[in-house]
Amino acid sequence: MNEVKAKKFLGQHFLTDEGIARRIVESLSPGVERLLEIGPGMGVLTKYLINREHTDFHVIEIDRESVAYLHDHYPTLDVIEGDFLRQDFTSLFHDTYAIIGNFPYNISSQILFRVFDNRNSVSEVVGMFQKEVAERVAAGPGSKTYGILSVLLSAFYNIEYLFTVPEHVFNPPPKVKSAVIRLTRNETAALECDESLFVQVVKAGFNQRRKTLRNALRQLNIPLDTVPEPFLGKRAEQLSVNEFVTITKAIESCR
Ligand code: SAH
After folding, report:
1. Helix or strand run (H / E) with residue 102
2. Ligand 1 centroid vs 41 CA: distance in angstroms?
3. Higher-confidence residue: 253 or 84?
4. What's the rounded Cα separation, in Å, for the pair 34 and 14?
5. Minimum-distance ligand 1 atom for the alpha carbon of 12
6. Cβ contacts of 252 within 8 Å, gap of 6 or more
7. How many CB atoms lie within 10 A of CB 5?
8. Predicted TM-score of the model (pTM)
9. Residue having the nearest C-alpha atom to atom 3 of ligand 1
10. pLDDT at 8 over 80
C-alpha cells in the first residue's frame, strides 16, 4: 500500500480497515445478482465481492496503476478501465444491477445524479460518501441539509444512513468523516407527473432555497396560477416528494 502514491485529483483515499470493508460488503442485499463496483482502487472491497455466488460482477476504475494492480491480483476479474460517468452499462448487464463503492468523493454528486438518471436500471446502491453528502441524501423535509438529491433520489429509492466512518481508517486520511448509505429501489415505476418538469421544479426550488416557491420558481418562466396558494408560500426545504409531485401536476394542468 505504501508504495502506491494516492492521486488526490482522483479522490483516492484507500480504506485500510478490513472490518469496515466487510461491513460495507455485507450491507448489500443478499439477492443481488448483477453488481458493479465503482473505483475499486487496490481492491479492499473487491476481494470480498469477487467470491459472491451467482453474481455477475464487474468493476470500473479510471486509474491505470490501480487497473494494473487489479489485473495482477485478480486475473479472472472483469476490470473496465474508464470513467464511470462516461460509460453506459445497459449492454453489460441486460437487466437491473446494483452499484457498490467507496466512491471518489470529488464526483459524489455526479455519481448520484447518474443513479437518478438510470433509476430503472440501478436496483440498489451501497456506498461510502463524505458524511455531509450522505446526510444530505438521507435528509427529509424540514431539515437544513434536505436538498435536490434528497428529493430526486427518495422519489425512487428508500434511503438508509447505515454508519459513520472516521478519517483515520483511510490512506491518506481525508479531511472529513465519511458515511455509508444504502439506496434500495422503491415500488414507484413512474411519478404521476411529467418527470422532467418535476426535476426542473425541484432544482429551481432549491437553487434559491431561502425564497418561497412563488419567487424561486419565477426563473422557470411558467404560469403558477394553478399551483395552490399554500404551496407557493412555502420554501422548497419544507416540501415532501409528494408535494413536489402535486405542484408539478398543477403546473402541467395550465400549460
Ligand atoms: N475502493 C477503494 C478506493 C477508493 S478511492 C478503497 O476503498 O480503498 C476512489 C477510487 O475511485 C480510486 O481508486 C480512483 O482511482 C477511482 N476513481 C476516481 N474517479 C473515477 C471515475 N470517474 N470512474 C471510475 N473510478 C474512479
Report:
1. strand 97-102
2. 5
3. 84
4. 24
5. 5
6. 193, 194, 197
7. 9
8. 0.95
9. 41
10. no
Task: Tell me the C-alpha distance between 202 and 35, whole Å.
Answer: 30
3-class DSSP string for 212-231: CHHHHHHHHCCCCCCCCHHH
More confident residue, 111 or 11: 111
Amino acid of residue 85: L
Domains of the chain, start order = 3-185 (3.40.50.150), 195-252 (1.10.8.100)
Name the phi and psi angles at 15, rounded to 5.
Answer: -75, 130
> Which helix (H) or strand (E) element contains residue 34?
strand 34-38
Q: Please name the amino acid found at residue 122.
A: V
| Residue among 182, 199, 206 nearest 128 (CA) | 182
State the amino acid at position 87 in one-letter form: Q
User: Tens digit of pLDDT for each residue in 49-86?
Assistant: 998 888 999 999 999 999 999 999 999 999 999 999 99
User: Which residue's CA is minimally distant from atom 22 of ligand 1?
Assistant: 83
